[in-house]
Design goal:
Layout lengths: L1 H7 L1 H15 L1 H22 L5 E9 L6 E5 L2 E5 L4 H10 L1 H10 L6 H4 L3 E6 L5 E8 L2 H58 L5 H36 L12 H25 L7 H28 L4 H77 L4 E8 L6 H30 L6 H8 L24 H16 L1
Antiparallel strand pairs: 1-5, 1-6, 2-3, 4-5
Helix pairs in contact: 3-12, 5-7, 7-11, 8-11, 9-10, 10-11
Length: 493
């Protein structure tokens, strides 16, 4: 025995042991295979052994069918989305698509269950090809469904893309009147402000008013200084000796000449300005007021000069001249103060109008850009819609429906039965080993040696002979011996 084991090797001994274990409970293997086979047979009997046909057709997706149109703000975005293929395949193989196919084939809705009709669609890797398939128990229906489904798929997707483009175009067109109306309102506000300021932007008038205000403020400072100087001069001349009367006052004459020279210069400037502007223009009105003020000052000085010539004393003449000049400067200061207040009010209103004008012009500029952007997007969307309408196809059939393989009932049943028997046998083998390694009893010397780990010399064999147990004796010993002697011959017989 040792020599045989040495020749066979340890692996052979293990395989023999596995074979012995399986053989002891081989009924489990047979039972698992039989049960699995019965299940397959039962399923086959219940299903009726119906034959299934799977037809397939291939379509090519046109590039114009792939882009998606949408708007982001006022801009049109045309590009292919990541969800293009899922959407395309879902539209081609959803229950609504199957209902439309059955309606086109003039089949009742019950035909779906009657002929076991099921449709699917899938993309061929990363190409522009898609496969449309239909499985049915009727070969002709399977082929017809595929051919009709590919045609309806093309029509449905064409309508889907055209509706998408028309929806975007309708949205863009609805924006144009709103933007145009708002643009007109902004432009009307700007034009009204310009009309309020003589047809010019408020910024021009504001600049002019600011310049005039600065000039008035400077003149006010000079007038105040001149008033103070004249008062001091009048007090100083009170101590001077008198002079011969009827002598012209040189100071008055020089002052009158200077004012008349300024009046002439401003009248020339006014005549030049009237050639370019109207009489109601703010700059023309301001210059006219300056000329009128200077003429009043000249008249006042002429009256003072005439009165001074009639005096007999030089001191009196100079004092009157100084007082007159002081009064003139005081009056001028009052006029300039009033003018300053008027200019400040006008400047405040001009600045307010300027803010409204700048806001209106900014809104008008932005709305003009939006209007142009929407028009450009609308032109692009209309061009895309024309391309989609004029496209020869969206999904072109490149391979008509065909059934690549037909598996008969017997072949399908044989394959399923074989797989079931193999699987049932495998489950039976697993059950055998589970029972073997969980069973701790032993039935012979080998099991005892394997489980106990000690050598076994022998065992008590199992006997099927029934052992009869005698009832205990209750009488005297003599009677028992007589009874035994009486029964002895009977057993021998």
């Amino acid at each position: 025995m040792l020599e045989t084991d040495a020749v066979q090797g340890p692996n052979t001994v293990e395989y023999i042991e596995y074979y012995r274990i399986i053989r002891e409970r081989i009924w489990l293997l047979i039972l698992g295979a039989v049960l699995a086979g019965l299940v397959v047979v039962g399923v086959q009997l219940v299903s009726g052994g119906m034959r299934s046909y799977t037809a397939e057709g291939t379509v090519l997706v046109h590039p114009v069918a792939m882009p998606t149109m949408m708007t982001q703000g006022d801009e049109l975005v045309i590009g292919q989305e990541k969800e293009f293929w899922p959407n395309l395949l879902q539209i081609g193989s959803n229950p609504d698509a199957l209902g439309a196919i059955l309606k086109s084939l003039k089949l009742p809705p019950e035909a779906e269950n009657q002929y076991k009709i099921a449709i699917t669609a899938k993309q061929i890797r990363d190409s522009r090809f898609a496969v449309f398939s239909c499985s049915s128990s009727n070969r002709k229906i399977s082929i017809d469904v595929v051919n009709t489904g590919m045609a309806l798929w093309d029509d449905t997707w064409r309508k889907e893309k055209i509706d998408e483009a028309e929806s975007v175009i309708a949205g863009l067109r609805s924006r144009l009147p709103v933007i145009a109306e708002r643009l007109q309102e902004a432009q009307a506000v700007a034009e009204a402000i310009e009309a309020k300021h003589g047809g010019l932007a408020p910024s021009k008038e504001a600049e002019t008013i600011e310049a005039s205000l600065a000039a008035v403020q400077m003149a006010m400072q000079n007038a105040n200084l001149e008033t103070a100087a004249a008062a001091e001069r009048s007090r100083a001349l009170a101590s001077q000796p008198a002079r011969t009367p009827n002598v012209p006052n040189v100071a008055f004459v020089e002052r009158i000449d200077d004012l008349e020279q300024q009046i002439m210069e401003r009248e020339v400037l006014l005549a030049d300005m009237l050639e370019r502007r109207t009489k109601d223009h703010p700059s023309v009105s301001a210059l006219q007021r300056q000329i009128d003020d200077m003429k009043r000052r000249v008249a006042t000085l002429e009256k003072a000069a005439a009165a001074a010539q009639q005096e007999s004393a030089y001191v009196q003449e100079s004092s009157i001249a100084a007082q007159t000049y002081a009064q003139e400067m005081a009056a001028r200061s009052q006029l300039l103060a009033a003018r300053e207040g008027e200019l400040r009010n006008r400047l405040s209103g001009a600045r307010t109008d300027l803010m409204e004008y700048e806001k209106a012009t900014a809104d008008a500029t932005a709305l003009q850009k939006r209007h142009l952007a929407v028009q450009e997007s609308l032109r692009s969307a209309e061009a895309e819609l024309r391309a989609r309408r004029e496209a020869e196809f969206m999904l072109r059939t490149v391979a008509e429906a065909r059934i690549p393989r037909e598996e008969g009932l017997l072949k399908q049943f044989a394959i399923r039965l074989g797989l079931a028997l193999f699987g049932g046998a495998a489950l039976g083998i697993i059950a055998i080993f589970l029972l073997h390694y969980t069973d701790m009893t032993f039935k012979n010397e080998e099991d005892a040696e394997r489980l106990l780990g000690y050598p076994v010399l022998g065992g008590i064999p199992h006997s099927d002979v029934q052992v009869i147990e005698e009832a205990p004796a209750t009488g005297p010993p003599e009677e028992e011996d007589q009874t035994a002697r009486a029964e002895g011959p009977r057993m021998d017989q």
